[in-house]
């Protein structure tokens, strides 16, 4: 699959001049991918997800272009040049296109509504992503000094170790955000979980003084978001489950790449170990040492 390459025919100078617009365009593509992830497992055929992602990108780009048109004066040469550039970069078609296709649009108010509703799906994905990272840190800091983590053990940390599950309990779990729900959501959003973790991180760190979506003067926040996503992606690609058939928790093709110019810079996130789990792993060694010293 080809991602982020729509700018190829445009010169590097041009892209540098319009860097903010490139950021927005990439972000709008990410929004589409978050609402309709790859490997969607659609049961209806043919799958409409690709088309819906395109509509989302188009709709958000159009809103951005309209806001630019409102703040730039076409009669001023520099403004007019900028708008022509924006039209090319954001793929804004001629007006006659809108007359024919208006009814097929995916309006931005609906995108915003759907995005807000996705929040309940993003939370378990974010939680499990963090648990995978923290569990790995726990094993690294333990006597075992291992790079090791797994989805099942992470779920155990989140939900506690309750081996006996009644049928009622299981049903509750499925509908009310239990282990099965987490597993299902993680599988569905696996390719975009670095974007989800980055978004949630910005929310938690109160870096989202305003809504993450739909603000046209915050290109720096989109840059930060992409940077964070790249940081999470790099960390996730290092995760391993040593005893499993498939050792890598994430294969490179299972997680969406970022544009090549995105660099994870200026990021200082501490991954804390799970204190109780660390104690549990270390317990036999501590006991062994104590016996030796006694
Ligand atoms: Zn689909």
Structure description:
The chain has helices spanning 12-17, 19-35, 49-71, 77-89, 95-101, 108-141, 151-159, 167-175, 179-189, 193-204, 219-237, 275-293. By secondary structure, it is an all-alpha fold. The chain folds into two domains: 12-106, no CATH class; 118-285, no CATH class. Helix 2 (19-35) crosses helix 11 (219-237), helix 6 (108-141) crosses helix 9 and helix 6 (108-141) crosses helix 10 (193-204). The model has no long low-confidence stretch (mean pLDDT 86). Zinc ion (ZN) is lined by residues 40, 42, 47, 49.
Number of helices: 12
Helix content: 55-70%
Total domain modules: 2
Global Rg = 23 Å
Largest sheet: none
Structural class label = mainly alpha
Question: What's the SSE pattern?
Answer: HHHHHHHHHHHH
Overall strand count: 0
Distance between the terminal alpha carbons, to the nearest Å? 62 Å
Average residue pLDDT = 86
Beta-strand residue fraction: under 5%
Low-confidence stretches: none
Bound molecules: zinc ion
């Amino acid at each position: 699959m080809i991602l982020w390459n729509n700018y190829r025919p445009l010169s590097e100078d041009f892209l540098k001049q319009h860097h903010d617009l490139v950021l927005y365009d990439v972000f709008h593509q990410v929004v589409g991918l978050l609402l309709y992830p790859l490997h969607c497992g659609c049961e209806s055929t043919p799958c409409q997800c690709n088309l819906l992602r395109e509509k989302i990108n188009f709709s958000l780009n159009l809103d951005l272009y309209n806001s630019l048109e409102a703040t730039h004066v076409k009669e001023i040469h520099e403004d007019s040049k900028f708008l022509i550039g924006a039209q090319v970069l954001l793929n804004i078609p001629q007006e006659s296109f809108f007359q024919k296709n208006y009814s097929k649009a995916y309006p931005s108010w609906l995108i915003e509504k759907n995005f807000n509703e996705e929040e309940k799906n993003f939370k378990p994905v974010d939680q499990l992503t963090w648990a995978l990272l923290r569990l790995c840190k726990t094993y690294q800091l333990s006597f075992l000094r291992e790079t090791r983590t797994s989805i099942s053990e992470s779920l155990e940390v989140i939900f506690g170790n309750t081996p006996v599950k009644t049928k009622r309990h299981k049903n509750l779990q499925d509908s009310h955000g239990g282990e099965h729900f987490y597993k299902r959501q993680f599988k569905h959003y696996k390719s975009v979980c670095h974007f989800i973790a980055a978004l949630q991180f910005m929310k938690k760190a109160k870096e989202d003084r305003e809504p993450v979506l739909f603000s046209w003067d915050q290109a720096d926040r989109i840059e930060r978001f992409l940077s964070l996503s790249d940081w999470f992606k790099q960390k996730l690609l290092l995760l391993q489950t040593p005893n499993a058939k498939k050792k890598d928790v994430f294969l490179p093709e299972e997680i969406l790449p970022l544009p090549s110019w995105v660099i994870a810079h200026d990021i200082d996130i501490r991954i804390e170990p799970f204190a109780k789990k660390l104690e549990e792993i270390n317990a036999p060694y501590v006991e062994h040492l104590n016996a030796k010293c006694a």
